[in-house]
Amino acid sequence: MKIHVLPPHVARLIAAGEVVSRPLDVVRELLDNALDAGATRVDIEVEGGGLALVRVRDNGCGIPADMVVLAPARHATSKLAPEEGAVTRVTTLGFRGEALWAAAQAGELELVTRPAQQVGAAQVQAHGEELRVSRTSAPAGTTVTVQRLFAHLPARLRTQAPPATEVREITALIGRYVLHHPGLHWRLTVDGEARLTHAPSDHRGAVASVYGPLSANRVVGVDAPGVRGVVSRPELTRARRDRMHFSVNGRPVQAAPELEKAVMEGLAELIPAGVAPLCVLDLTVEPENQNPNVHPAKQVVALADLAEVASRVREAVAQALAGQPLARGAPALRPPTENETTPRHSSFPQLTQVGLYQDLYLLAQGEGDLWIVDAHAAHERALYEQLSRDLTAAPPHELPEPELLHLTPGQLARLHERAAELRGWGLTIEDFGAGLARLRSVPATLAALPVPRLHEQIVEAALGDGPDPRRDVLARLACAPALKAGMLTLQLGEQVLAALSSCEQPWSCPHGRPTTLRLAERDLAHAFGRRGVRDVARGRDAAEPPVMPGR
């Protein structure tokens, strides 16, 4: 096969596809340019799914008239110094100098720009190799319009997604920019209709604009070195991780699995397995410790020390939730309007038992509210923390005769990974070959537990696929002896409340189910049609008004 150099006009069409393959790419690149220009207001217009028109208007610094002719030139940029090594210290969202050039190759580009101190604006019209520069009048800032995208590339035009699909993706993209840049004015208009607006606020306000005020009222702030944003309380979770958002130095990115895992571990036992929280986390790293030049759309950022960043995320999330009143609201008797994000107490409240229900639930009162306590979950939490405290208090219990175990290939692989960690807290399992292992010792505090198939359950949990074998073992063993339905009495209820109040994290069992629900007296009064003194806000109703969306 003969090797030949592609003609320039063919090479340009291929290269343009690397940066602009769909309207979403145009929007992303223009948003990056607007933010790099220091804009505080960004307006986006889309027509025909972006194929007919994409327009981004900002009030940023603008481009001087004597430089505007270079704006649509390939690899022409003001964001990266023309020196070796500059690409390893990227401090802007854009840096390749290809966005406007690729848009002009794929469609018809118009650029109107004026720095605030300049008299009159410059207008650039570019399509392919055609370029016209003229003077016009315009407010300070830059407006970029791309029309008839791929009109001269019929093959690429036929492969575009339907307009409704593209609009959905564009709306989701702009929502992410709003979440990570909440201090700006944002407005998205689709075919003349406003789809998303946001006024300057904080991360909670951005969550309200994108996901609604009910979600915003269920997030708490995260503020730690290098990690800022919000994470949802345990009652706000989803089966998917599509609302876990991260940015690196202001750039919205596809999160590495290690970062998502760090958030889940920061929540620890507060949420059950198989669900994910909502989070918006802005990560800050040194420019030389991140590389955004590993993905055509810059959606993936390589981090020099991902493990250290993940550790910071884990600690920041855990710290944000520590001391929060994490009791979940009982099923609402009216549309919920309470704001439960501002902590009023850093510890579990003093509860007075008033009765039992179905020999499983404790009814108590405290802080002016009615509390419903799941005795099994509460007892399980107390046992879990007791086992955690006592786990290494005594030397391991050596089995008189090592127990021979049959392990699956997956369990054997995890044994090789975790053997040293397991020995550290008294569990000694040795590979015996041929799919067998020997159990030689177990922690003394676990050895005497009245749990059926004790050794089998310990090994199954320790070599399971969970990320924390110690927690998995203790959670399983705390569940078995905990109070079950029909076992609860008033006397045991008092003991459960006392044990729960002394827990470090009393709000959920080790598997993430809530231990308590609370119902405000005001909710009851409204449900019964009462007014007057019983209509006074107490308990959680006395909190500050909920956040409203920036609309």
TrEMBL record:
Biased composition (Low complexity): 327-336
Coiled coil (residue ranges): none
InterPro entries according to UniProt: DNA_mismatch_repair_CS, DNA_mismatch_repair_MutL, DNA_mismatch_S5_2-like, HATPase_C_sf, HATPase_dom, MutL/Mlh/PMS, MutL/Mlh/Pms-like, MutL_C
Limits of the DNA mismatch repair protein S5 domain: 207-322
Pfam families associated with the record: DNA_mis_repair (PF01119), HATPase_c (PF02518), MutL_C (PF08676)
Keyword annotations: DNA damage, DNA repair
SUPFAM superfamilies the UniProt entry points to: ATPase domain of HSP90 chaperone/DNA topoisomerase II/histidine kinase, DNA mismatch repair protein MutL, Ribosomal protein S5 domain 2-like
Biased composition (Polar residues): 338-347
Organism superkingdom: Bacteria
Domain MutL C-terminal dimerisation, chain residue ranges per copy: 353-489
Residue segments, region Disordered: 327-347
Known role: This protein is involved in the repair of mismatches in DNA. It is required for dam-dependent methyl-directed DNA mismatch repair. May act as a 'molecular matchmaker', a protein that promotes the formation of a stable complex between two or more DNA-binding proteins in an ATP-dependent manner without itself being part of a final effector complex.
Family of this protein: Belongs to the DNA mismatch repair MutL/HexB family.
Name of the protein described by the UniProt record: DNA mismatch repair protein MutL
Annotated source species: Deinococcus malanensis
